Amino acid sequence: MSQISVSNLTFCYEGSFDNIFENVSFLIDTDWKLGFIGRNGKGKTTFLNLLLGNYEYEGHISASTVFDYFPYRIREEQKAQCGVEFLEQLKPGCEQWRVICELEKLHLTAEVLYRPFGTLSHGERTKVMLAVLFSGENDFLLIDEPTNHLDRESRETVKEYLGKKKGFILVSHDRDLLDACIDHVLVLNRSSIEVQSGNFSTWWENKSRMDAFHQAENEKHKKEIGRLKKVAERTLDWADKSERSKIGFDPIKDPGHGLQRAYIGAKTKKMQSRRMQVEKRIEAEIEQKEGLLQDVENPADLKLMPMRYHKEVLIRAQDYSITYGNGEVFRDLAFELRRGERVFLHGENGCGKSSLIKAILARNGAGGVVSEGRRVNARADARPVYGNAVQANPNKDAGAAVRPEGDLLERDRAVMQETGTLACGSGLVISYIDQDTSGLRGNLKEFCRENDLDESLFCAILRQLDLERVQFAKNMEEYSEGQKKKVLVAASLLKPAHLYIWDEPLNYIDVFSRMQIEKLILSFQPTMLVVEHDVRFREKIATRVVEM
Question: Where are the beta strands (DSSP E) in 387-438?
Fold first, then answer.
């Protein structure tokens, strides 16, 4: 066991006028299973890169261990190669037999190493990279969001696997994963960094108690400040009256007043001194109060403007099937989405969740009945719709409002063929969040103009989601993945709609914002069709789960 010491760490990106870290100090052990928690844009991935030595910084980081980072950067030419051909390039000194042993623990066989990497599913790619990561000895591992885009089975496998390991920092916003895998937390608060023993739930319970205590203390400070202000005003009033009584007397009518002038002057001076002391106490109380709430999480309540649809059933599928080329995605699907329901599509990667969403978006406004063998263009280069309320034009290219899921596999380049019936209600307005953020370009002003959004309201929602104002002046290419997701969520919330279709909306979004969104949905109860693998989120929000 060794330690990693961070002292007086200060860092900001070149050309930026805000520090990511400022005089940060803490100490951690290399045999801990450390969960890294913090708001989007607070610097979690940046800190991992500082440990790797990728950036210059002020301060000191002392460590006697070797760091390795997940996910590995896979080059385009490597995607065409079998994994076994470039293992050594990912991790120098990597031994194939060790990787195979780790793959067995992840419920995979060595066969995946002999298939082109680009043909593997999201789950298979993640497991191969984790197997390579843990194939070394005595490394301290930096694991950044390992479960994004993974289905339930793959998440459970990764959770079980990491739960048996130690010596890592895990960046994740998945509360279920953090509870199962970590024994310490490293938390980026609003104005400080803390290290605490326990898992996420233990830390959150302690934080909730501490926040409640600080809020109660804050109320006491406010009352004390109010009382002191009244004392200061009363003392000032007395001092002014005494000051005025020193002058303006008639020495004939009031011959004794002159003898009292010195006494009154001394009394006035004493009152003024008392007033100054009270004001100093007020300043001290205010300073203490301001410091008290710096780390308290008090997220603003979000608002939604759902529209009420005039019919009970919004979407109906009967004997509905989708195929790509010769490959069948799913068959004979039957379900209804009714007004007020929050239906979660659930199943392993590749089972057709995003394909069904694309078909619904393409069908929206087109009348509903699918003829046998209908073909829908699902081109990879189709332009996505970001959070817009969409009413598709049946005369337009059906692929213009959709984008394929995740990394492009072979079937995503094929033409989607449908059979059976998929019906969308007439005049149905849909607000859609795509799981892909790669199309976000330019600044927020341009984004609002292109998507017909009220810029001031849009920015207000982003502030409620804790996006700092300094980010508004940047191009979205500079945002973290979590900040990009918040842009899509804010756009969707701003658009009134009958139905909200969200395809993996929480990937990369911090846990505090997830809780905000949970509260929003439970308060306004919109009709929703959702694909999301966060177990806690689904348990709280879903009224029904459709297994694909």
Answer: 389-390, 416-424, 430-433
